[in-house]
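Hypothesis: this fold can be encoded by more than one sequence.
Test: take the structure tokens below, design a sequence, compare later.
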């Protein structure tokens, strides 16, 4: 993947609410297993192609000799597999098509300087070459853009030069060949029928938060699908997610090997996507939630219910005058939340910034790539969060709650709705659950204030560790209470 422009970072931080897109990740895929015997030969060919790029060619920075050799070698391999490679958009952008070209799979040839780029991106290139040898698809283009790491230059040129119409489905492979195969880039062009299509034909992990970021911040997409998505194509990005959700050797000199089970899993997913009938759904606000596809009508129903109940609690409060007293209670709950957030945030900051922990591999990579200080935040997140949540719970217990917990949740949902319905959905759901107990109103914050989630947000440049504590402000609904409502009726 290419580095994130600083302006985008600022923008993403400003849209900090986009981080609150929390629901549990998709269910675990089947555990890594040895490929079946008939796939062993395919796996060996993919590993040989990875070895060719990593060991024989080595680092392939954009514009260098090794990148040109990679393009020539890919063209020769496509030719040997019976395809007719040509150049589209830029001198090293290799494309080979069968049929009408309605489906395009992409894997960039280059690497950043100083790394042989096994996961980024020899694995993707090797998988597409093996697909070329083995697929029976009669409607498929395989594209190998150059200069992805220089800012998606090859794929942008390829998209600009693509003869109309654009492909209906564009799949970019970037950072595959390790961890669990996952999908991102499912932006505004995707709807429920398409998400179900994806589930049916490629068993990939599809985290809810990725779908939210792809919808709310399409400018954050960082791989070769982006220029095509910008032009209106239905596009996605396949990547592996290692422990903690990241690739902790990203753009580092030791990105020099791949995981065989991950390569086999990738090839199987590509075989499915290459032969499936193309998705035909309409864009809507459906979401992936664990193994399920939550239809758009369910999203809108939860949002409508929470907003109506919030309005009800404003106009017909359990205690006091309409509007005025609920608004005063809202302010009192916010003050309590601010105090608890401050104390919890200080506990978290003390653990992550005191330098008591040795920086881990992922943290050193984030320091190299993102410029984050390697203060021990990776390891410190766990004790820091434990201390922070304990402080928060104690304060919540001492301070008590005030007013409707649904009203602040509905307010947060209404604010998030201005960005995207799927960003608002967790707050709306928390507002409904909070009617059972106000503490359930803290669920979206609990999802984000968790070690893995914070590390992934920091690693991707979405939220530096210094700002983590601010997420406790999202626990505002948990500072409501229904105690007085229960005592009102006998009067
Ligand atoms: Zn890449």
């Amino acid at each position: 993947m290419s580095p994130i422009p600083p302006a985008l970072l600022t923008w993403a931080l400003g849209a900090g609410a986009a981080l609150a897109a929390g629901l549990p990740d998709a269910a675990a895929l089947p555990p890594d297993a040895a490929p079946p015997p008939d796939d062993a030969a395919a796996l060996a060919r993919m590993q040989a192609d990875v070895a060719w790029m990593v060991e024989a060619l080595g680092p392939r920075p954009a514009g260098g000799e090794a990148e040109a050799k990679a393009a020539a070698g890919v063209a020769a391999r496509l030719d040997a597999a019976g395809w007719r490679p040509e150049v589209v958009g830029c001198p090293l952008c290799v494309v080979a098509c069968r049929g009408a070209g309605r489906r395009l799979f992409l894997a960039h040839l280059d690497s950043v300087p100083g790394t042989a780029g096994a996961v980024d991106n020899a694995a993707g290139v090797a998988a597409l070459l093996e697909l070329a040898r083995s697929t029976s698809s009669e409607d498929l283009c395989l594209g190998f853009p150059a200069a992805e790491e220089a800012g998606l230059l090859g794929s942008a040129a390829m998209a600009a030069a693509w003869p109309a119409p654009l492909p209906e489905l564009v799949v970019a492979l970037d950072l595959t060949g390790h961890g669990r195969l996952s999908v991102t880039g499912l932006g505004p062009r995707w709807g429920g029928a398409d998400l179900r299509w994806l589930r049916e034909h490629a068993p990939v992990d599809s985290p809810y938060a990725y779908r939210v970021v792809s919808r709310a911040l399409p400018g954050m997409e960082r791989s070769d699908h982006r220029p095509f998505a910008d032009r209106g194509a239905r596009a996605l990005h396949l990547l592996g997610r290692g422990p903690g959700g990241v690739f902790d050797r990203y753009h580092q000199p030791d990105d020099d090997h791949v995981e065989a089970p991950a390569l086999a899993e990738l090839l199987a997913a590509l075989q499915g996507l290459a032969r499936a009938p193309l998705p035909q759904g309409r864009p809507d606000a459906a979401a992936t939630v664990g193994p399920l596809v939550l239809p758009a009508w369910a999203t809108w129903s939860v949002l409508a219910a929470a907003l109506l109940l919030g309005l009800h609690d404003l106009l017909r409060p359990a205690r006091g005058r309409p509007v005025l007293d609920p608004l005063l209670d809202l302010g009192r709950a916010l003050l309590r939340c601010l105090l608890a957030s401050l104390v919890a945030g200080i506990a978290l900051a003390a653990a992550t910034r005191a330098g008591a922990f040795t920086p881990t591999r992922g943290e050193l990579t984030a320091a190299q790539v993102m410029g984050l200080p390697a203060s021990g935040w990776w390891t410190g997140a766990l004790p820091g969060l434990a201390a922070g949540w304990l402080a928060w719970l104690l304060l919540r217990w001492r301070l008590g709650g005030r007013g409707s917990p649904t009203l602040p949740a509905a307010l947060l949902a209404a604010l998030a709705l201005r960005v995207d319905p799927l960003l608002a959905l967790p707050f709306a759901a928390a507002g409904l659950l909070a009617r059972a107990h106000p503490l359930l109103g803290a669920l979206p914050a609990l999802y984000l204030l968790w070690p893995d989630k914070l590390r992934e947000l920091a690693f991707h440049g979405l939220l530096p560790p210094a700002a983590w504590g601010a997420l406790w402000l999202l626990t505002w609904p948990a500072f409501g209470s229904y105690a007085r409502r229960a005592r009102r009726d006998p009067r």
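The CA atoms of residues 68 and 352 lie 44 Å apart. Residues 1, 108, 120-121, 148, 174-175 surround zinc ion (CB under 6 Å).
Hypothesis status: open.
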